[in-house]
Design a protein that fits this description.
mainly alpha
Length: 99
C-alpha cells in the first residue's frame, strides 16, 4: 500500500508541476516533461531550457526538486493535518485482582 501511495503521489506531483510549466512556458511539451521528471528525480539532466524559463517556471522546477529530494510521502505526511494524532481506540482500564 505504501509503494502504491508513493507512486500515486509522485505521479500527481509531476503532473501538477508539468501543468504549471505548460501554463507559464512556451516550450515543447516533451521538453517540459523531461525537465519536470528530471527535477523530481533530482538526476541533474536537462534539455537546456532551464536557463530560458521564466521566474515562475524556475520556481516550479525548484519546488519540484525540493519535493523530489525530500520524498513525496514525507511531504504528504508533513502537509497532512495532525488531526489523527489521537489513536482511534482507547485502552480499557480495569483493576484486576492478582493472587
Amino acid at each position: 500500500r505504501r509503494a502504491t501511495a508513493v507512486a500515486a503521489i509522485s505521479a500527481m506531483i509531476v503532473l501538477v508541476a508539468l501543468t504549471l510549466l505548460s501554463l507559464t512556458e512556451e516550450h515543447d511539451f516533451v521538453r517540459l516533461l523531461f525537465e519536470t521528471v528530471s527535477a523530481f528525480g533530482t538526476v541533474g539532466l536537462s534539455t537546456g531550457i532551464t536557463s530560458t524559463l521564466t521566474v515562475a517556471g524556475k520556481l516550479v522546477i525548484s519546488a519540484t526538486m525540493f519535493v523530489g529530494r525530500c520524498g513525496p510521502l514525507t511531504v504528504a505526511l508533513a502537509v497532512a493535518s495532525a488531526e489523527n494524532s489521537k489513536p482511534p481506540y482507547r485502552l480499557a482500564r480495569e483493576s484486576l485482582p492478582i493472587g
